[in-house]
Specification:
- It catalyses: 2 GTP = 3',3'-c-di-GMP + 2 diphosphate.
- This is diguanylate cyclase.
- It comes from Hyalangium rubrum.
- The chain is of the alpha/beta class.
- The chain contains 11 helices and 11 strands.
- Strands 2-1-3-4-5 form a 5-stranded parallel β-sheet, with helices on both faces.
- It is globular and about 60 Å long.
- The relative contact order is 0.10.
């Protein structure tokens, strides 16, 4: 199977999912859910066999059961990323009654997306299809498949996607959600003291803060998410399949990761925080510019109502 067929989204062919699940009953249940969702499923009960099989079948996506005490799924994800880079979407299946598993995957799971074992088949299939379509769109744009020439996709300072590409991805995800159902969210953020750093320490130090912010965001998001720099000191993320109900957890996770990192100025650690804002589709509808503007407005309001412990507003969307 060629990479173009597998990741370019050619119509009429079932995408292949490698399913790694040690529990026989859960393996069969999830296999049936994925099959109903239009996937060809290759089931596997052993994590140590996942990497060799991955190299043989080159799946379109991988779903792994994440559970204690060893959390072998996380170690397996590290190996699969070495083999497949970022071209293959990965997904953890986590028992909602195991908070330790959720915490472990959130903190050490390589920023791979999670889904509850109790999720419906339609929701599981929708999440995977969404990730595959987004990945295919990114690859097509990067290869210039839509225009015949390579597009300028990235911000030269931070290496993140630029605003033009980000808006195109919001437009595509809107069309997908309108056609197939589901939703997505747009998150905006900015370093709380960016202007003060630039004024006091100069443009070079301000640029360092922007790069620092970009690195932290890149370490926080899932493979299916799109992160961009949308203005001088502002960033945005598009989160496919993430509903409004999940946003408080997402915002707290992003803010906590930013707090854990340390930005140094002249040998001293500068405590920085993020202003955050978010809106979700279809709660907010409209053109990509409307969604981004609404998220930026929520973020700017956080200057007035941010939480004092880590400097981020709790946005209700």
């Amino acid at each position: 199977m060629g990479l173009k067929r597998k990741h370019g989204g050619k119509a009429g062919l079932q995408p292949t999912v490698l399913l790694v699940e040690p529990r026989a009953d859960e393996l069969e249940r999830t296999r049936a859910l994925l099959a109903e969702g239009g996937f060809r499923v290759v089931p596997l009960t052993r994590f140590d066999a996942a990497a060799p099989l991955f190299e043989v079948i080159r799946p379109d996506a991988v779903v792994l059961a994440a559970q204690g005490p060893d959390f072998a799924a996380v170690a397996t994800v590290r190996r699969l990323r070495q083999l497949g880079g970022s071209t293959v979407p990965l997904l953890y299946m986590v028992d909602p009654n195991e908070p330790e598993a959720w915490r472990h995957c959130l903190e050490k799971g390589q920023c791979v997306d999670m889904v509850s074992r109790s999720v419906s088949g339609a929701e599981l299939a929708l999440k995977l299809h969404s990730q595959l379509r987004l990945r295919a769109a990114v690859l097509r744009a990067a290869e210039g498949a839509d225009t015949g020439t390579a597009l300028v996709l990235h911000d030269p300072l931070t290496g993140l996607y630029n605003k033009a590409f980000f808006m195109a991805m919001i437009g595509q995800e809107t069309r997908r959600a309108e056609r197939y159902g589901g939703g997505f969210s747009v998150v905006t953020c900015a370093p709380q003291n960016f202007r003060a750093v630039r004024k006091q320490h100069g443009a070079a130090m301000a640029d360092r803060l922007l790069v620092y912010t970009a690195v932290v965001l890149g370490q926080t998001v899932r493979e299916s998410d799109v992160v961009a720099r949308v203005s001088d000191g502002e960033f945005a993320m598009m989160l496919p399949g993430t509903a409004a109900e999940a946003m408080p957890t997402v915002l707290e996770r992003v803010s906590a990761r930013f707090e854990l990192a340390r930005f140094q100025v002249e040998g001293k650690v500068l405590r920085t925080s993020l202003m955050l804002g978010a809106v979700s589709f279809p709660d907010v509808v409209g053109a990509p510019t409307v969604l981004l503007k609404a998220a930026l407005e929520e973020m700017r309001r956080s200057r007035e109502v941010r939480r004092p412990d880590f400097g981020v507003s709790r946005i209700s969307v």
